[in-house]
Amino acid sequence: MPTTFTSGAVRVRVPATSANLGPGFDALGLALGLHDDVAAEVTAGGVRVAVTGEGAGELPDDDRHLVVTAMRAAFDVLGAQPAGLALECVNRIPQARGLGSSSAAIVAGVLLARALVADGAARLDDAAALRLASELEGHPDNVAPCLLGGFTVAWTEPAGARAVTLPVADAVRPTVFVPAERGLTSVARAALPATVPHGDAALNAGRAALLVHALTAEPALLLPATVDRLHQDYRAEGMPATAALVNELREAGVAAVVSGAGPTVLALSQVAAGFQAGTDWRRWELPIDVSGARVARGRLGHAERDPVAAGRKS
Predict the structure, then answer these.
(1) Is 277 annotated as a binding residue?
(2) Which of 61, 110, 263, 296 has a 20 to 30 A CA-CA distance from 6?
(3) Is this prediction's pTM over 0.90?
């Protein structure tokens, strides 16, 4: 069946995400109320990308842009490539900070491509979109909450990635501490050993299970539920300020973890009143995004072009 592209622009809003959540390495993720907005339409030829906000002047403005790369991969699945593309990106998710900026770009690209094909939803349903986004990202723990919203548990089967969403207890109030320095997932993964002691793996399995219970039903258990021995200590040498802040918060009784591969720190329980992380950190209290990625017709409007995330406290 031939592929028919729709006329006019489509837009998508994608949330930031925090993955791992301590012991839930490559499995657990949380969607946060900080968003990128991206609009795209098919053109007669060429690729144009306009970026404002985070990454402006740094990110590619052609086929090398990650949203375009993801769109191209999705168009291959959908059966045809358009002659050209025009994109507008309003980015609020900090780049290379452990808040899922790359996953947001990938999910945005997959969903935009699907929306630009007349029967795209029939050819690429949400389950297939998750599998494709996970293949492009390399693991599903960030793309799952970005696509689905809320708290997700993701895993990979021979056929590809799968995920489920679970409700989060009202008392869970995420706060992120975002440093000026950047980090790369590839560098953080290179710090991990090929094997870990059996006792550490067993401890993480128990704490990850406890974390699911703590996030969904009993937040009072978040501090013990966020103990990790699989990845955070191994990465500490490469981001000492992040490790120090995590330790300081935990000593104050706050369930704090490295967000994703870092260097951002995520606090899942109420941050101690008056806690000051220092001038090198931006502190944002973010709601949990329960909707995930949202697609609509039309170009970005005034609200989407606002570079400041509504409701964010700093």
Answers:
(1) no
(2) 61
(3) yes
